[in-house]
Amino acid sequence: MTVATWPVAELHVHIEGTLETELLVTLARRNNVALPSYDPEALRELYRFTDLQSFLDIYYANLAVLRCENDFYDLAMAYLARATRAGVRRAEIFFDPQTHLANGIPLAVVFGGLSRALIDARRDLGISADLILCFLRHLGGEAALETLEAAVPYLDQIIGVGLDSAEVGFPPSLFTEVFARAGALGLHRVAHAGEEGGPDYVHEALDLLGVERVDHGIRAIEDPGLVQILRERQIPLTVCPLSNVCLHATPTLAEHPLPAMLAAGLLVTISSDDPAYFGGYVDDNLAAVEREFALSPHQMAALARNSFRASFLPEAEKRRHIAAVDEHLEGLLRLTSGA
Ligand code: ADE
Ligand code: ZN
Asked: Which of 10, 88, 139, 307 makes the best surface tag, with the fewest CB within 10 Å?
């Protein structure tokens, strides 16, 4: 059974990770940037990763094609159009300003393009979207703090901060100060933790950074005490199954901890992470776990409901979206019962 149209919130997607090879080639030609190939298929063939770092090396290199406001606009608009087709009603989108600053692109250009796309998409596609500014862990805590201060004039264009890039060796404890500052500025706080790093990284993200959601968090399952905390506090974990397989965080989808996480009563959501690199958008991720774990319509509905519960939307909007999930479930059950 197809799940392509479950209404969902996408809470873990890097806008830079939605750069499909077709658009990559278009932007490279537009901006005279050299690529290893100008054939989108041949470029996709290069996407064979052994771990997170092997992916990040290609991902960061490709971002040299983003030069002007329209490039960021086109990138975000392409994602929002595809996401709408995937059933996404709400997207809380990560972006990595430090990558673009290092490429010589001012913050005004990045915000200008991304924010304009979000406004146009809300008007033209009916999708609600906001931005979460991520700090690159490999650049350290001081650089993160400088980036946040530089972004203060654009605070009305972000809803929160996140933490991404190479995890192991760059624990959350390095970012205590910048997350405290973000909290004082009234921003939501999330962080990647427990993707490649162990459960200790998840503990630190909760205790030292005060995060409201954990991105990935799959290795939390190794620590029963942590599982109990996550269950009791209903901390959302934004799980990205196709990403985890592509980056070998889990050997196969069949061995993914998702069923164990659900059985443990964790508030799990499904997301796509970097869909242009990992073979699928949120609908593809949902379809993959539905098939692999033979999830029932009720379990799929729970995942969709969780995505809205875990979002940063106002409560009334969450309720409206959750009602749409319930309606979708009822329609599906009527269809399968032949009524
Ligand atoms: N940046 C983009 N995708 C990422 C991931 N899966 N983990 C850490 N940083 C990232
Ligand atoms: Zn991610």
From this structure: 139
**Protein residue with its CA nearest to atom 8 in ligand 1:** 165
Pocket test for ligand 1, best of 164, 237, 238 (most atoms within 8 A of CB): 164
Nearest residue by C-alpha to atom 9 in ligand 1 = 165
2 pLDDT above the threshold of 60 = no
What confidence category does residue 337 fall into, taking pLDDT thresholds of 50, 70 and 90? confident
User: Catalytic residue numbers?
Assistant: 195
Q: How far is the centre of ligand 1, averaged over its atoms, from the C-alpha of 135 (Å)?
A: 11
217: Cβ contacts below 8 Å, ≥ 6 apart: 193, 194, 195, 202, 230, 237, 238, 239
How does pLDDT run across 137-156, given as a tens digit for each residue? 999 999 999 999 999 999 99
Ligand nearest to the CA of 194: 1
pTM exceeds cut of 0.85: yes
For residue 258, pLDDT over 60 is answered with yes
Q: What is the DSSP letter of 174?
A: G
The closest alpha carbon to 221, from 245, 243, 202, 247, belongs to 202
Ligand 1, atom 1: closest residue by C-alpha: 165
293-to-173, 247, 266, 296 alpha-carbon distances in Å: 36, 20, 17, 9
Of the listed ligands, the closest to the CA of 52 is 1
Q: Domains (ranges, CATH) in the chain?
A: 8-337 (3.20.20.140)
* Residue 19 CA, ligand 1 centroid: distance in Å: 14
